[in-house]
Amino acid sequence: MRREPLIVAHRGASADAPENTLAAFRLAWEHDADGIEGDFHLTCDGRIVCIHDGDTRRVSGVACVVRESRFARLRELDAGSWRGSQWKDERIPSLAEVLATVPAGRRIYIEVKCGPDVVPAVMQGCASAGLTPEQTLVISFDPLVIAAARKLCPDRLASLLMSLPTDRVPPPAEILDRLGECAASAIGTSVTPYVDAAWIAAFHEAGYSYHVWTVDDPREALRLAAAGVDSITTNRPAFIRQCLRQAAG
After folding, report:
1. How far apart are the first and last CA of the chain?
2. Beta bridge partners of 35
3. Could you write out the three-class secondary structure of the chain?
4. What is the CA radius of gyration of the chain?
5. b/e map of 71-101 (b: 16 or more CB within 10 Å)?
6. How far is CA 7 from the centre of its chain?
7. Around 26, how many Cα atoms within 13 Å sit in the side-chain half-sphere?
8. 110 contacts 148 by C-beta, under 8 angstroms
9. For the chain, which residues score pLDDT lower than 70?
10. Going by C-beta distance under 8 Å and a sequence separation of 6 or more, which residues neighbour residue 131?
11. According to the model, what pLDDT value does residue 39 have?
12. 211 with 234: CB under 8 angstroms?
């Protein structure tokens, strides 16, 4: 019998708390997530911060371009009130702060939203936080980021992200070539009806773990779990886990 896939909280428990904040990550752990996923950018003064967009307008109402801003300026911004007044004290966290929330035995998926130049600092941050290679997965749509991560720290996992067409999937061999070119150890994809057991098996047989995002529909989560995915990234970690466990009896 196949084990239940890991449940990874997308930008933290972002259905219930402001995304990519310490509150969202802490809530994810309270909801018994196996891992958290966060997005990371580099500031102009060399700090790594957790935010999805390249600017801060959507989550703060103030338009600061992250790569052109100093860390201290970004910390002045209110990154929580957009989700409700109870979150008004939430700030844009640093990578180190997010890593510090990860409990023993749990995982973090670190999505690098900038270029490969940030990879050494990310890897150093993981080491300084005392996280084991099994606890960290660097993820990116940029194969250069994945290649840099694997070259610098081959013992840490790195997953190439891909948005799949909604009407088909490419031949597995085509994707496997891309994974091989950047030395990825895993693949993460968007979800379509064509992501099925046979498709996933092609990657498992080639030695890659398979991860999917962003799944909030319990029927889709059940289908993907049965198809053999290794992890499901969701905005609703407690709800999706409960649905999977209820279905398993």
Report:
1. 13
2. 8, 107
3. CCCCCEEEEECCCCCCCCCCCHHHHHHHHHCCCCEEEEEEEECCCCCEEECCCCECHHHHCCCCEHHHCCHHHHHCCCCCHHHCHHHCCCCCCEHHHHHCCCCCCCEEEEEECCCHHHHHHHHHHHHHCCCCHHHEEEEECCHHHHHHHHHHCCCCEEEEEECCCCCCCCCHHHHHHHHHHCCCCEEEECCCCCCCHHHHHHHHHCCCEEEECCCCCHHHHHHHHHHCCCEEEECCHHHHHHHHHHHHC
4. 18
5. beebeebbbbbebeeebeebbbbbbebbbeb
6. 11
7. 7
8. no
9. 1-2
10. 99, 102, 108
11. 98
12. no
Burial (CB < 10 A; 0-12, 13-18, 19+), residue 62, is middle
Considering the entire predicted model, what is its pTM? Answer: 0.97
Tokens of 109: 């998926």
Q: What is the pLDDT of residue 2?
A: 59
Overall residue count recorded for the chain in this entry = 249
Distance CA 193, CA 48 (A): 36
Rounded CA-CA distance 227/98 in Å is 31
Amino acid at 18: P
